[in-house]
Design a protein that fits this description.
The chain is mainly α and about 80 residues long. It is built from 4 helices and no strands. The longest helix is centred in the middle third of the chain and has 23 residues. The two termini are about 30 Å apart. The C terminus is likely disordered.
């Protein structure tokens, strides 16, 4: 069986079918949350401590890190 390969657009959200107008927002948001997670890990912060620094609640930070945030993006 031969697999068909399609070249990536360099934006995973566009590649999987999200509306074009939302893909840049989603990519920036994902990159930002990766950096936040790396910072939390490197500083050995608890979610509670990180949430206080960021000015959000611990449950909100947890949702953001798990990508459960209220996101308007919907796939076509």
């Amino acid at each position: 069986m031969k697999l068909k390969m399609t070249k990536s657009s360099a934006n995973v959200f566009r590649d999987i079918g999200f509306p074009r107008e939302e893909t840049e927002h989603l990519l920036v948001r994902a990159d930002l949350m990766i950096q936040v997670q790396k910072l939390i890990t490197s500083r050995r912060l608890t979610q509670k401590a990180a949430a206080k620094i960021l000015g959000v609640t611990q449950p909100r930070l947890s949702d953001l890190l798990r990508e459960r945030s209220t996101c308007s993006a919907r796939m076509h």
